[in-house]
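Hi C.,

You asked whether I'd gotten around to modeling the 592-residue construct. I have! Everything is below, sequence then structure, no commentary in between.
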Amino acid sequence: MDAIVKMLEKHQPFFEKISRNIYLQAIKDGFLGCMPIVLTSSIFLLIATLPGVVGITLPQPLIDWCNKLYNFTMGVMGIMVAGTTAKNFTASMNRRMPAGKVLNDGSTMVAAQCSMLLLAVTQFTTKFDGSELSVFDCTSMGTRGLFSAYIAAFITVWVYKFCVSRDLTIKLPKEVPGAIAQNFRDIIPFGGAVIICGIIDVVVRNLMGVPFSELLIKLLSPLFTAAETYPGLILIQAATAFFWFIGVHGPSIVQPGIDPIRLANQAENLQVLLAGGHPAHSLTFNMSLVGEFGGTGATFIVPLLLILFMKSKQLKAVGKASIVPVAFAVNEPLLFGAPMILNPYMLIPFVAAGCVNVSVAKFFIDNVGMNGFSFVVPWATPAPIGIFITTNFQLIALVFVAIIILLDAIIYLPFLKAYDKLLCDQEAERAAELGLESDGAATIAASTSAPAAEQTAAAAEPTAAAADSKPAAEQPEPAADASAKKDVDGLKVLVLCAGAGTSAMLANAIKEGAAQTGENIASSAGAYGQHTAIMDQYDVIVLAPQVRSYYNDMKADTDRLGIKLLAPRGKEYIDLTRDPAGAIKWLRENLD
């Protein structure tokens, strides 16, 4: 087992390189930027549909209004993702541009949205009340058009890079205001991106008879089918847990490629549910509630196992500290506190538990009658509650939850017990060493003669008296705490993680520490990828361990803006979240 972990550690730089791929980052961050659309639209959908489950009939105008809000948010998800992906891809590309040449992220965002419409949407004419109208087929404006959104974003930014790098822009006299001049500089790359996507659209429609978005779905249908089999679900979940185990944020690598599939399946499940059928797709957006039951590694039950069954003081303390965060899918205190990351004892259960969970979920959906997940709930929803809601409040879902909790406990317990024994032995050795040191010190103290001790005390008294007789000006000042020399008053701190959950823990600790020390420090939590528009408002940015692999990219931005960048490692980060005063001291010590 140790050999396997050493092998994984050896290849960790390669895996981190994958996670820093600018295309994957742009997809992940672009999708993350549109998460408010997913969550907000789902709330209105729940309002419109769930009351009927318990026999409550809402007024039809209210239902229509909620459905309209859903359709005009989730229904244009693809267009919005095209823009946010292009914006984030532009930020990555700007780090690689020659000095003095910058891509306009506002312009690339709009161009990508227009290009996505060309690739994904069909325009046709119809008659209404005797008049001929031009209408859009909205089918691919939402989640069905996500692949087209990504392609449009990448083409757009590359066209902009090509034009700006070679000065293929319209230049105006220097007397023209900068904002107007920028608009003219963007005309050629904007037109180039739109024309290229328009040509692709014409070629695909004439050769294949379908829009580009449907072509991708058709070509990738084998992948869709394979991903929803038992081996496919297991592979997806195993890869997610495997990458996290070696310290690389697994969802950042695995999920961008399958998000379009998951969202499209979930939307189809919803349509089937509303039509009175059985939603049968198992690979959906909220399948993460099952595979990542309590967080990656399916750790929901682990803190309770640590509290009830472990004898090690370390594991019991970690269990007590992590039980609440893990319930809300923030399991970093457990991952870095136990630790579970790169812990050879934890590799098998950390990967296996989630794989077993998704397999059981597929079995329940295919054979027992449990609904496939249809509604979207926030990622921090406690998993048992989220599963119950998104299966449309089926009682069988509660049975399913009880079964996977039991299975996860059975999977984890033998490995936790083995690790617990190791820690207990280590703790016993440390206690024995401390006992020997204590006995030795007591022996030395006992051998010291009483008269000698009295002589020492007597000798010390004149010294103290002499010190008291000195003028106040000559008295030596007490040594100042070195860490207090660095002023942190008025500091603005932004803590970033993958989903703004782990970052909130440290941001809250800094706020509490500032209150304790009486210093004026403002701290906020955010998600990496959504920070670009606000980062210039902060003095210090702290990267949580799960996004530490982005340090080099982030450093280029913070150096340009004169911002201090800090990236504590796993155990250190978790310790800071539990020690507010220590978090303030740590900030002082790291402000060069």
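If it helps when you're writing up: The radius of gyration is 30 Å.

Thanks,
B.
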